[in-house]
Structure formats: structure tokens, C-alpha cells
């Protein structure tokens, strides 16, 4: 299954989905979520069918990409402490697992022969309290964030200087922002991060929409790009029937080394279709 466009599908036949309040108690069991094998309808895509799509082709890239911003949760309830506790629990478990070990190994082996990275930009991580109110969806944000932090730590250790961490996500609540700041991130509003990318940047975004990538790459190529596979970009562009310039994405595919991002256990889609592109020195 592809998660291009990043849609996480929950089984709407489950009576819990969409109706179960977020469990405030950390010990409360997580709700099992069944993902559809194949998505006939991506809600974010179907919202934009027909006239909307035709209209979007007349918009410039920045306006076009704004349609792909997830709106913030209108009624977030978690406190900063609750989000931080959940993150501690999820990230501790994830750091002890095989996916994290493989990611460390990939980065450590690549560091000597690939361009130096002095800044790390994270896009589209999602909210730590998403509207869906399904813990598994929020787990994705925690795990993706932790993987980004691990990469930044390794870069920092290698270059012996602080690596600035920047994060941009339009759906962040004020508490999401506070949480990221508490971890040392600089939180910026879109499109600020797009203009902060240069040849020494790690640009990281899992399951982002192609118009978002097109904007992120509009000025300069990063030194390292953790994102989707280029052949998926092509496929997604066709699906969207949009006039999106993916020449810069193609340039990365042509010139950078390409490594599959380590996967979580079978059946987990946290890093599905994700690739590390890193320019050689
Ligand atoms: C498909 S979701 C992926 C979420 C998560 N990374 C995942 O794998 O489930 C795409 C995310 O990109 C975010 N996004 C859209 N426009 C953005 C922008 N200009 N800057 C940063 N993130 C953006 C959306 O708000 C949304 O959360």
C-alpha cells in the first residue's frame, strides 16, 4: 500500500473511530486501528475534485500548496505535560528498537562520504493531538519527530557544532508548538522554513504532498532530503492532474545517493515509501 499524500486511513466501521475521546490517562490501552488495504477515496483528495482541481491549476505554487495544509485541531485538550509524557514513552520504546538502530547505522555510515549538514528542517510532522483522536495517528507524529531528532543528534556529533532544528507544521496547536520549543526546536510559520533550505540542510518530511515539496525546493536543493520516492512524485502528480514542477525533485533523484529509510515492523506505515537522498561530498 502506498501512503503517498500521507493519508492514514482508519476503518470507519469501528464504532470507536472519531467518537472516542483522547485517552487522558497514559495507561489507557490504545485503540486498535485497521487501515484499509487500498484507498478508493482519499478524503483530502476527494475534497478537491473537479472544479477545485481545475481552479488550482491556475494558482501559483504557493497558493496551490496552501490547499494541502491540514487545519489545526479546533479543540485540543492535551496539556504540554501530557504530550511530553506520551512522547517520552513512545520515543524511549522507539529508540530501543530495530528501526532506530538501522537509522543510526545508515547515518553514521553515510556521514564521512556525504555533504556536511549544519541545519535540520522538519516539515509536516502532524499534530501531537490530531483531530482524528486516534492514538495510533498521534504515535506517528511522535515517532517521526524522534527519528528526526536522532538524525540531528548524529549530525551534531559529527560536525562538532550545534545543528539548528526548525519545524513547520500549519496544523500545530499552541501546545504542539510549546512542546517542540521545549525540545529545542525553532517553530516557524509557513512559508518561513521553505526559505531556510540550502546545500547544508537536512530537509525532512514524511508523506508530504508534492506541492509542499515543490515549494520547499523552490530556492535551493538541500544537502539531504528525507522524503518520498521520485517515482511516487510522478505518480502523484498524474493523479492530481496538476501542473507541478518536479524538475528539482528529479534533479535530486539524478544526482544524490538514494537509500531506503528503515521501516518499522511489518504492517506499520510510519515511514512507508520514504527514502533518504543525500548528496555526496
Ligand atoms: C499527509 S500529512 C503527513 C503527516 C505525517 N507526516 C504522516 O506521515 O502522517 C501532510 C502534512 O503536511 C502538512 N503541511 C501542509 N503544508 C505544509 C507547509 N507549508 N509546511 C509544513 N507542513 C505542511 C500538513 O498540515 C499535514 O500535516
TrEMBL record:
Coiled coil regions in record: none
Family matches, as Pfam families: SRR1 (PF07985)
Biased composition (Basic residues): 34-50
Domain of life: Eukaryota
Region of interest (Disordered), residue spans: 1-77
PANTHER family: SRR1 DOMAIN-CONTAINING PROTEIN, SRR1-LIKE DOMAIN-CONTAINING PROTEIN
Name under which the protein is recorded: SRR1-like domain-containing protein
